[in-house]
């Protein structure tokens, strides 16, 4: 009963990226451009993979389609609210809206981490066991792996919400960020949150670190295998691996920095947050398409292939 009485905060105030009105107008235009690029780029990849059967039947492009869908959804969790706040003097979010944002942010973020790990395994099988690749990475296994990624993200996110929702909040209610996330919200609880912080670090921080190490280990084995066994076609495989490693670094490094440490504020926290929620979803389509001849060819065919989508015909 005492905890319920203490939890009298009904909304949080988001301090955002800047308090200067002129700078906020500039940031609004900049991030509006980023958001349009995110939506169009990732939607283009999803449509391209779905329209071309040979891409959809390929495990790598099947996973890439899901990755683009996650990036598209992930950007919608934070960017629209940020754009709205740039044009308002009062930047607030309800308590339930804050929890909803945390849930989808961690649900989609964890699902993406698991999916990138699966994509690394896919490349490992393709390069280290090419003769049995299609047998091992059959459509049924790919479907189950994707479902496991979504389920893993759901479980991770629910654990975050369960820990946060039990905390009492009695003021202040200012979040030094442009969206709700666990580190900032926990700091506002009017109780000792040491145990909760340790649980959060174990949940989010270790998840990011373990997945990142697994990915690095997988690509290290791939590079060793290429160097010792294969000579022909190395450039194409190295290009694919370089694309994956670039995406992995852009996603995991900010997450490890934010979550694998005590919840204290640093001046660069917002920069890493922008990288994770905006820059990475925007760069992923560019990274995968500019370095991938198959995707570029398939996208060019969209313009001349008769279909029922006016924008693509």
UniProtKB/TrEMBL annotation:
Membrane listed as a keyword: yes
Record's bilayer topology term: Multi-pass membrane protein
TM ranges: 25-49, 61-83, 103-121, 141-165, 206-226, 238-259, 271-290
Localization (cell): Cell membrane
Entry GO MF terms: G protein-coupled receptor activity; olfactory receptor activity
SUPFAM superfamilies referenced in this protein's UniProt entry, alphabetically: Family A G protein-coupled receptor-like (SSF81321)
Keyword list, A-Z: Cell membrane, G-protein coupled receptor, Membrane, Olfaction, Receptor, Sensory transduction, Transducer, Transmembrane, Transmembrane helix
InterPro entries documented for this protein: GPCR_Rhodpsn, GPCR_Rhodpsn_7TM, Olfact_rcpt, Olfactory_Receptors
Domain (G-protein coupled receptors family 1 profile) ranges: 41-288
GO cellular-component term (any): plasma membrane
Family note: Belongs to the G-protein coupled receptor 1 family.
Protein name per its UniProtKB record: Olfactory receptor
């Amino acid at each position: 009963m005492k905890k319920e009485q203490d939890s009298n905060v009904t909304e949080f105030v988001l301090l955002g990226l800047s308090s200067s009105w002129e700078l906020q107008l500039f940031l609004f235009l900049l991030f509006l451009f980023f958001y349009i690029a995110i939506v169009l780029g990732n939607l283009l990849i999803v449509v391209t993979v779905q329209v071309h059967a040979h891409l959809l039947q390929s495990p790598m492009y099947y996973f890439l389609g899901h990755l683009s869908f996650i990036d598209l959804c992930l950007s919608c969790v934070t960017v629209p609210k940020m754009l709205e706040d740039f044009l308002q003097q009062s930047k607030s979010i309800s308590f339930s809206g804050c929890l909803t944002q945390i849930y989808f942010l961690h649900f989609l973020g964890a699902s993406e981490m698991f999916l990138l790990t699966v994509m690394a395994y896919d490349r490992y099988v393709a390069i280290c066991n090419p003769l049995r690749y299609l047998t091992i990475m059959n459509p049924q296994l790919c479907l189950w792996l994707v479902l496991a990624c979504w389920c893993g993200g759901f479980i991770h996110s629910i654990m975050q919400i369960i820990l946060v929702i039990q905390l009492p909040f009695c003021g202040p209610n200012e979040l030094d960020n442009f969206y709700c996330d666990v580190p900032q919200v926990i700091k506002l609880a009017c109780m000792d949150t040491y145990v909760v912080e340790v649980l959060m670090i174990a949940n989010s921080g270790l998840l990011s670190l373990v997945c990142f190490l697994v990915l690095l280990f997988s690509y290290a084995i791939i590079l060793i295998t290429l160097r010792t066994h294969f000579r022909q076609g190395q450039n194409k495989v190295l290009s694919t691996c370089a694309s994956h490693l670039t995406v992995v670094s852009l996603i995991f490094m900010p997450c490890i920095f934010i979550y694998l440490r005590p919840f204290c504020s640093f001046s660069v926290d917002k920069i890493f947050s922008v990288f994770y929620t905006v820059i990475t979803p925007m760069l992923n389509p560019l990274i995968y398409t500019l370095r991938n001849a198959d995707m570029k060819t398939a996208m060019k065919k969209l313009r001349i292939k008769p279909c029922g989508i006016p924008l693509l015909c």
